[in-house]
Amino acid sequence: TEFRVSPTGQYGAGVYLSADPEFARGFALKEPKDAFFGGSSPESGNLMTVEVDIKNPLNLGGPTTLTSSERKNWIRALKKHGRTKELKMLESEKANPTLIYNSLLGGGIGQAARPLREAAEKAKLIAQDAGYDSIIGKAMSGTPPEVVVFDPANIKIKSTEKISRKVEAVDKGPQVRGSE
Within 5-160, where are the H helices? Predict the structure, then answer.
């Protein structure tokens, strides 16, 4: 099975994964009004257990220092994309991947969806040019980490569970529940 790359998301285009099945289920059956960047409301989806082969993830919220090699890779990628603000950030010993990535987003979550979608895709491309093959991050406080794999060929299915949506009318409006 070939995984389809989500064209948009918090961290740009990629295959979005979570180790938390309930969190993943929520994305598989997401309501359009709840979708971070809009989209459709599927009647069903697949919840899969997968094995991921990633070698160099950009771990947002992870290590707070850059190795010499990481610093060189960021400099090369940022120069290629003309990002002088982030290049100046690298002059500081306190520069770390999370600060650089957040700066590339230009303010992050508070932005309107379209500018954030474009910024997220550009930030992802710069991260790829800096040698990263995926991103590990948390979209919001209190949510489990997400892994965004850039190349779907790096994902192998171990098992699949079909999930579907049931909608029932009740006094407070439709309630959505997943079913096995």
Answer: 21-28, 68-80, 84-89, 97-105, 113-129
